[in-house]
């Protein structure tokens, strides 16, 4: 009798897997239209800098796996485009950093913070790029 639940469970998994496999072409069929980026358009308004003052950061907006906007006191925005994609950063939208000075610089490393079942866990670590002052462009809806 103990084998029936296992057999049923395995059969259910195989059936579910077969159904998912059969539906895979439908899931992969996508509209060939342009993808909507979560990164808002921005106009560069100055030269990139290597560091920004930590005390001036009001908030951050993680836009995707490679783009973070640092909103400063007074409303100035610095866009940091990481040199390489940082896995799950765009999904988790949270990161931490450690620095021994009062600035965050392009040589610093951020670590993705993941929320797993209500518990915070460290994800991958990634290097920052330069901080480019930008003005976010409002797009008509």
Please provide a brief summary of the model:
The longest helix is centred in the N-terminal third of the chain and has 26 residues, at 3-28. The protein has a domain at 42-136. The protein is of the alpha+beta class and 141 residues long.
Shape: globular
Separation of termini? 62 Å
Q: State the total count of DSSP E strands.
A: 10
Rg for CA atoms: 22 Å
Q: Can you give a write-up of this model?
A:
The protein has a domain at 42-136. It is 21% helix and 38% strand. It is built from two helices and ten strands, in the order H-E-E-E-E-E-H-E-E-E-E-E. It has helices spanning 3-28, 89-92; strands at 42-44, 51-53, 57-64, 67-72, 77-81, 95-97, 103-105, 109-116, 119-127, 131-136. The strands form three sheets. The chain has a five-stranded antiparallel sheet with strand order 1-10-5-4-3. The longest helix has 26 residues, at 3-28. Residues 1-31 have low confidence and may be disordered.
């Amino acid at each position: 009798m103990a084998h029936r639940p296992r057999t049923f469970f395995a059969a259910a998994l195989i059936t579910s897997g077969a159904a998912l496999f059969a539906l895979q072409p439908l899931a992969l069929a996508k509209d060939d239209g342009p993808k909507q980026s979560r990164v808002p358009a921005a106009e560069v308004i100055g030269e990139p800098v290597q560091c920004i003052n930590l005390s001036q950061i009001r908030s951050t907006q993680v836009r995707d796996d490679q783009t973070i906007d640092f909103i400063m006191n007074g409303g100035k925005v610095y866009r940091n485009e990481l040199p390489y994609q940082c896995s799950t950063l765009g999904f988790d939208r949270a990161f931490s950093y450690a620095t021994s000075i009062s600035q965050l610089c392009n040589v610093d490393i951020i670590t993705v913070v993941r929320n797993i079942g209500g518990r915070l866990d460290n994800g991958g670590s990634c290097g920052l790029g330069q901080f480019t002052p930008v003005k976010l462009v409002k797009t008509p809806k």
